[in-house]
Design goal:
Helices cover 11% and strands 49% of the residues. The strands form five sheets. Strands 17, 18, 19, 20 and 21 form a five-stranded antiparallel beta sheet that branches. A four-stranded antiparallel beta sheet has the order 1-2-3-4, with no helix packed on it. Strands 5-6-7-8 form a four-stranded antiparallel beta sheet, with no helix packed on it. It is mainly beta.
């Protein structure tokens, strides 16, 4: 019953979404909308800025070289009026750069050097904390690293205002080490399962879900940055959010599924040439795979945006939904 209601809510939102906007966008308090775009045949990334009737394009300096840049992600820090951009180079480097509220770009910060392994699925989140009257900001990043195995990686970059304090890069499995949950069980995922990887921010913590096809269930992990000793170096401390089954979604979506988190719910979705498929994890189980037809008037980006809004609306009104 709940899944059916969610599907109806999604359809209603799509009907109202005549004009969709990319998910990789941020709206600043002064009303400026920034979106990411690739230019120069993918060799550079640019910010498209809209403020009222004004529109302009800002080339991101760290991407202006000859190397191809991919997987751009945006974060906006209201505390410091800083716009963060994370992206992946063709070499495999994961790079972080930022623009201040005055339009000044920082030097690029290589979060993780490319070493010949394939890296995909870059996802980011931003959290905050207070310490000794200082305002701390934390950029969290996760991605897949394909070597002999497909491994989930994690990066944590700490700032005091605009001052960079420390960087941590490691394995999500290492962060979760010692926590007894679904990922510790022996066995493998069911055939045609999808390995999960997603992140969202919840107050001071990053809420992460990750899986491996070599384990029967995925892991939900809440990560809190903690100062190590007296030095202003921050490391991730993990606590379990429980285990969950892998979604059997790959065969229904040609293996191109993506994952997003909205509140307590997890959504897997995939867009083919003519259809958009999705399934929602709620109350301990995966719902059926639903399908929506796409055409020239409804793009996959519009459906992604409507899906996020629909699940968010469903999340806030779930207490009044009855079986």
């Amino acid at each position: 019953m709940k899944t059916r209601i969610l599907f109806v809510v999604l359809a209603a939102f799509i009907a109202l979404s005549a004009i969709g906007q990319p998910l990789e966008s941020v709206l600043t308090p002064d009303g400026a909308l920034f979106t990411l775009d690739s230019i120069a045949e993918g060799q550079a990334l640019a910010l498209n800025r809209r403020a009222g009737s004004e529109r302009d394009t800002i080339i991101i300096p760290a991407t202006a070289g000859e190397e191809l840049d991919h997987d751009g992600r945006l974060l906006y820090d209201h505390a410091t009026s800083t716009l963060f951009v994370l992206f992946r180079r063709a070499s495999g480097d994961i790079v972080l750069t930022s623009m201040s509220g005055e339009g000044v770009w920082s030097d690029e910060h290589v979060l993780s050097l490319g070493d010949g392994t394939l890296r995909t699925g870059l996802r980011v989140a931003l959290t905050h904390d207070q310490e000794d009257h200082a305002s701390l900001s934390f950029v969290h990043a996760i991605w897949w690293e394909q070597g002999e195995k497909l491994l989930p990686r994690y990066g944590l970059v700490a700032y005091d205002g605009v001052e960079h304090l420390s960087t941590y890069v490691g394995s999500l499995i290492e962060v979760a080490n010692g926590i007894r949950n679904g990922s510790d069980r022996e066995g493998s995922a069911p055939e045609d399962s999808l390995p999960l990887l997603a992140i969202s921010a919840t107050a001071k913590e990053a809420d992460v879900v990750f899986g491996s096809l070599e384990t029967p269930t995925a892991t939900r992990l809440r990560i809190l940055p903690k100062k190590r000793g007296e030095a202003r170096i921050y490391i991730p401390i993990g606590r379990t959010g429980g285990g969950m089954p892998h979604p059997k979604f790959a065969s229904a979506s040609n293996g191109n599924a993506q994952v997003m988190m909205v509140g307590d719910r997890i959504v897997v979705y995939s867009a083919a040439a003519s259809s958009f498929r999705f399934s929602v994890y709620d109350a301990g189980q995966w719902g059926p795979v639903r399908s929506l037809k796409l055409d020239e008037t409804m793009t996959a980006r519009q459906v992604e945006s409507a899906l996020r809004r629909a699940v968010s609306e469903y999340h806030t009104s779930a207490e009044v939904v009855h079986e």
